[in-house]
Amino acid sequence: MTEKKRKEAKAKGRRLWIKELARGETAAAVESRRLFFNLNNLRHQPSSKEVLVTSATVGEGKSTVAALLALAAVENTEEEVLLVDADLRRPIVHSLFGLKRDGGFKELLSGEIDLESALKNSFQPNLKVITSGSGREFVWQLLEPAKLRGLFRSLRSRFSYLIVDTPPVIPVSDVLSLASELERVLLVVKAGETPREVVKRATDLLKEAGTQILGVVLNNARQVLPYYYNYSYYHYHYREPTPQKASPLELSSR
Q1: Bridge-partner residues for 216, per DSSP?
Q2: Which CATH number fits domain 11-230: 3.40.50.2300, 3.20.20.70, 3.90.1150.10, 3.40.50.300?
Q3: Alpha helix (H) residue ranges in the chain
Q4: Residue 57 — very low, low, confident or very high, per pLDDT cuts 50/70/90?
Q5: SS3 readout for 102-136
Q6: What's the pTM?
Q7: pLDDT in tens, 171-182
Q8: Domain residue spans in the chain?
């Protein structure tokens, strides 16, 4: 198998994985819907439709959370949703949806393409995706306030829900530049692994940048929380009661 085919097979597998993860009554699907409804019911509802998703460090699952939140938004609203991969250093959204990485956020900021050319279709009709784009050189030059302001103004005029996956807070300063345009943040924390002081440092940096932390999404909860948070707890379905013979104790208690 050639390298190109291996990459295509890997992308296809990931696409099916995120699609299955967001379907039905899986724990991920249930919690993603709950997260969407919580955000949608905030008092500042219009602004809560624009969410920046980040984490303190790498490997905490922020991109998966962003993708699942976007899919939950599509499932529970008739409005158009846009998922943007603004992580120009270690992007993964294109792999989750089986899309080409190039022709995305980076090219939009550099002026190489226009918005219509950057929008990619996903397996959900009302969900559009802007991938990260190719290359990672001169990232800090691309994230100029004027460029970001103009781009997000265009995105707001087109889409009702805007979900932006960004780099983690601690390793690089990219997210702080993006936070100047999307001031409301979801912070993803990997339960049982991310040190408390690292999370505290990340929240301090976000607050200093003038952001509002809407909440913390606890990832990897299955490994560290009590039994009633286990995935098996979600396999609860309605069913018709089956007639059973009463026991002597039941008869005598009536």
Answers
A1: 187
A2: 3.40.50.300
A3: 3-21, 27-40, 45-48, 62-75, 93-96, 105-110, 115-118, 139-142, 145-158, 174-179, 196-208, 248-252
A4: very high
A5: CCCHHHHHHCCCCHHHHCEECCCCCEEEECCCCCC
A6: 0.80
A7: 988 888 888 888
A8: 11-230
